[in-house]
Design goal:
Elements (H helix, E strand, L loop, with lengths): L6 E5 L4 H12 L3 E6 L7 H9 L6 E5 L5 H8 L7 E4 L13 H20 L4 E3 L2 E2 L22 H20 L2 E7 L1 E3 L8 H10 L5 E2 L5 E2 L1 E3 H13 L5 E5 L5 E2 H12 L6 E2 L17 H7 L6 H13 L1
Parallel strand pairs: 1-2, 1-4, 2-3, 4-5, 5-7, 6-7, 7-12, 8-11, 9-14
Antiparallel strand pairs: 10-13
Helix pairs in contact: 1-7, 3-4, 4-5, 6-8, 8-10
């Protein structure tokens, strides 16, 4: 690894995106302070990184719950300074918890605590983790500064509120605020309840996946492309505000499913239409990615190549 240039703080560092971001930052010469939930069941995701980067000053694990972030502020502002603060931690990001009001509401307060912690550590930029769920159902190109958000679930509404309140708090604290709206990310280490994981498991077990007609547009982003874009958002001097973080290669979801089958089990059947879709709650992913591509360029990994890489790591 080259000469250390910056230090970055990452919350949610044991998560799918968080652990991959820590790897990306370390590979590009950063010191990383990984804030992890005490007793996190996913701590193993960072174990390989601590072995690869054994210098304790390169990767530091700091146990702290989101609820404890305000107390951490008083401690760390005297211990170290940092350049970038990535806040990826979020309670209730999947399943039924996405409609849990108390969980979602609490995340707004935790993000504000993160902004104030970033300021106390001398960070020049705070990078949050928005979601395409903030837009709701958009039939057409979703543009950061034109499309009016209309979330249909508590999760999306809380992300939108976190953006609106977070940017104002950041302005009060005089710290740069970047809000990537992250679209559908896949790859090694993703949670088992995703569509990609379900399809691979079913096909490898000789089952016929039960899916919708797949007529809605979708856009998948490979994990390495996602974290590269997150790193570059932290580095780009001009980065500020909302960015749609996605590959920008939308296709009908059915096309992606067929591509995946072609990699995993070409002769297997797919039961399209076996599940009904609620059109009022079915995302239509067609993001405008001009803003992010002006900083990061195009994504490097095609969907089929990403699926192949995921399979290779599953087999090893």
């Amino acid at each position: 690894m080259g000469e250390i240039r910056n230090r970055a703080i990452v919350t949610g560092a044991t998560g799918f995106i968080g652990s991959a971001l820590c790897r990306e930052l370390l590979t590009h010469g950063y010191e990383v302070v990984a804030i992890i939930r005490p007793g996190s069941k996913n701590i193993g995701r960072l174990e390989a990184l601590t072995q690869q980067h054994s210098d304790s000053q390169t990767l530091r694990l700091l146990e702290c719950s989101l609820e404890q972030l305000p107390t951490l502020k008083d401690r760390v502002e005297h211990e170290f300074k940092a350049d970038l603060f990535y806040h990826l931690a979020w309670h209730g990001s999947s399943g039924k918890d996405r409609e849990h009001f108390d969980l979602q509401y609490g995340n707004i307060r935790y993000m504000v605590s993160g902004i104030r912690l970033a300021k106390a550590c001398g960070c020049r930029r705070f990078i949050g983790a928005g979601s395409q769920a903030e837009y709701g159902v958009v039939h057409g190109k979703a543009k950061e500064n034109e499309t009016v958000p209309n979330p249909f679930m508590m999760y999306g509404a809380a992300k939108l509120a976190a953006f609106q309140m977070g940017r104002l708090v950041a302005k009060q604290e005089n710290i740069s605020f970047v809000w990537p709206r992250i679209y559908s990310v896949y790859g090694p280490g993703e949670n088992g309840d995703t569509l990609i994981s379900y399809l691979i498991d079913a096909l490898q077990n000789g089952e016929t996946p039960q899916v919708t007609k797949g007529e809605n547009l979708w856009d998948f982003t490979y994990i390495e492309d996602c974290v590269r874009m997150l790193r570059l958002l932290g580095e780009a001097p001009e980065a500020e505000g909302i960015y749609n973080l996605s590959a920008g290669t939308p296709k009908p979801l059915k096309d992606f499913i067929l591509q995946l089958r072609g990699v995993v089990s070409p002769e297997s059947g797919i039961a399209f239409g076996a599940r009904n879709a609620d059109h009022n709650r079915t995302f239509w992913l067609d993001p405008d990615v001009n803003r992010i591509q002006a900083i990061s360029g195009r994504c490097h990994t095609s969907f089929t190549e990403g699926i192949r890489r995921k399979l290779e790591l599953l087999e090893n």
